[in-house]
Amino acid sequence: MEITAIDTFVVDAGWRPWQFVAVRTDTGITGYGECSDGRMPYSVVGTAQEFETILKGKDPRPVEARYWEMYRMARQSPGGIAAKAIAGIELALWDIKAKALGVPVYELFGGPMRTRQRVYWSHCGSSRAGNHEIIGVPPLKTWQDITDLGHEVVERGFTALKTNIVYPGEVARTYRGGFGGGEGTTDGTVDNAMLDHIRTLIGTFRDAVGPHVDIALDLNFNFRVEAAKRICRALEDMRMMWVEVDMYEPNGLREVRDSTSVTICSGENLFTARDYRRYFEARSMDVCMVDVPWNGFANSKRVAEMAETFEINCAPHNYYSHLSTLHSLHLCAVIPNVRICEIDIDDVPWKDDLVTERLVFDNGRVEIPDRPGWGADLNEEVAREHVWERGRPPGYSAGSATSR
Fold first, then answer.
1. What pLDDT does 396 receive?
2. Closest C-alpha to 230, from 204, 191, 269, 264
3. What is the CB neighbour count within 10 angstroms for residue 77?
């Protein structure tokens, strides 16, 4: 078996792009991997295509050998765009190998430890703020709308949700700070008015979902150590699942964790066990978030296994399409320290059509498919129907003049 070509897709997912890699072989088997980056999508797929020069004509089945060839080629550019491109190809190679053997990817890593995985409704309210028309849901104009959304979470069987700092209004928005480009600040501060708003937001969700549904708040990179401490302390009576704090300073994150009884989740921005090790050794996080489309499958498993030695649970980061969801579900199947898995529910109405098999939900859990490979392929026809326009800035919907 030989690799004959690497094709890529940049898909318009409404207010952010998704990127995919298709690795073709001379046997007719195609493997698919997702490597979505919401800010520089064409840079990622362009880098993925650069690797075709060293992969074409080679056997895709020795996946680790192919991975390290790509790693050596990009060694002076570790992490970032290069790592995401490598991950997309590596995920596609595992898909090829598993399909050739007629088994699910998880069978290549010891077989499944579970057949269903608990998931949380991510960006709950955040996606509707500025994008409700695309999603086809009511706008978030008032606190009652937040309450109604909380009721919807429960009615649809979910036992956990995650939100960002959402401001309902005639034009609802999320707090962006210095995260995501465009206008904002890198000061990373919080004032008393924002603290009160955050408590109102989380309190409204808590009243709506009841005492047992888990709630998480994602702060992204919007706040520095002092502000993150204040926010976490303000939420200590809210029975939080976690507060998600991203920063490139493991000791600073440890300061946040030491300052509060709230669970701290972090790591979605890190690459390979090399990055994570510093945070684990500093005891910076309670829950480790790992992004499979950015790390690839084998690296994500190595991160999870290292986390297990530090008695830390993992929660895959999955703000992407359902191909990414399948990558993350297979990871959950083969590691012993899963906390929960992320999934986006509010999305473009054709999201399910982008993969060839639909996910099966049951009481806040998703079945892990036992079909060969990832259990579904990218629907290339649908991907070609929704092409992300080059030059669109991050966080903008097509035709929109303002970001959320």
1. 55
2. 191
3. 11
